# Entry
Amino acid sequence: MTTRASAVEARQLTKTYPGDVTALNGMDVTVEQGTVFGLLGPNGAGKSTTVKILTTLARPDSGTATVAGHDVLRHPDRVRRAIGVVAQSSGADPVATGRENLQLQGRLHGLRGTALNGRVDELLERFKLADAARRPVKGYSGGMRRRLDVALGLVHRPEVLFLDEPTTGLDPEARAAMWDEIARLAGDEGLTILLTTHYLEEADRLAERVAIVDRGRVVVEGTPESLKGELRGDAVHMELREAVGDAGRTLLRGALGSLPGVHEVLCDGRRISVRADDGAATIPVLLGSLERAGVGVASATIARPSLDDVYLRYTGRRYSEAEAEGTGVLALAGGAR
Amino acid sequence: MSTAVSQTWYMTQRQLMVFARQPAYAVVTLIQPVIWLFLFGSLFRKVVELGGFGTTSYLDYLVPGVVVMSALSSNMWAGMSTLDEIQRGTLNRFLTTPVSRAALMNGNVVHNALTTALQSVIIVLLGLLGGADYPGGAAGVTILIIAAVLLGTVFGALSNALGMLVRERESIIGINTFLLLPLTFLSSAFMATSQMPSWMRHIADFNPLNWAMVAGRSAMSEHPDWGVVAGRGGALLVLAVVAVWLSIRTFRSYQRSV
# Structure
């Protein structure tokens, strides 16, 4: 038994919301202590529901979960003492100042007196909120609010920190700053971070391990490098002048797939994605082959493997499409979320 | 201080701060009843001549009615702020800390009780300024305020529970507009019970709003009927405890739907 203890362990979680909206469908998550784990998926994939269950907010229909060694269903109080939660909207009191918000959060966790004040000052300093500490939160910028949210989650020095979409809605500058902050947090002794995001770039950059979530379950899990490494070679994306029909697609798949150095061909209407050992050398061959088939190409790009490609490979859908679809599901689920 | 008590106090303090830092809102909540007091006071001044009011000044009769009605109308909106807290994510944030669920709800209850008491004192003082007479003295006024606070607690807790269950502002607005005036007019707020049609009188007997008015008026009269005060007051207390218990229970169903 020399393996590192799991800070989070969820097995076969399922949850269905009223109106038959399946949020989780056999969700498994294991996060090792002291690591940053990313749950990556489009809106509506089940990331937030997973976080709600792990943070004792929601109850699963079935399945088990432990956080920091405590069962979320049997000992929610012990879990609550061990976790920090930064939800998508953490709801700091807009009328209260940043300092007051932090003080209340600390008191709810049992901090008092000088220990509380010391911790609050430290966090205000660390998250660059010291100058704004005495101002009501309603006057804060989006980035400041988000930093305060993270500080609120850290007041009691939790063992496990949940960050649910920490940079959604932030401008690029504030997002970059938040990334630096999370990267620094990851260096904190023993802190385990479970991060959900729908930004591929964010998971790639911050998480040591990533699980791709689709339709309420994990489709693949590993380090960003190993996931990308599984995809041999480069991705070549081509935009066609006109969409091709089903018959044309099968034909193209066969024709392109038989070219040397080409491994996979995905074709959906106006776009073709090809995986090739050497993208640059393959492009002319691909273009020639398409020209002979009478298919006009509007553009062609080569990309090093990204998590986007991993997503496409394991779900059969492009990330942006799933995202759009997810929004639809969200609208249907409505108030249930 | 035990944990539960100190947590309740933190939650109360938080809400009092919101109240204190939004003076415009506070003033409107506190001043609105004044309009009722002087509008109805002037409009129905001559109604006491019908008899059965136990006083010759309509204002004397009206003050307890307006105190209780205002307690109802300000507390029944409690669910709106709970809804705000749900939408803002504040409630979820608290629910993931070790704070006790009872403290979360009791913070609302204590805050609402304090603001209701303050509102009631202001109405009583304004009545005094307008020439009302309170033969029951300070003890009578205190009992009226306690009755108003208990009634406010009943409707505040129910409104919170409703907010957590339905999660729609429209439902709270609908139910409140539906309830406020009928509950008020099916009570002795503006009219002596003896002047009411008998069917209304019977309904009023079951109206908690009326219990608070009857208890308050009796305590404030020259010769209080302590049996009536204790009976109606006790019934309000039981109702308040049940309503608060129910609202704490709604956290569970909230968790199922979150």
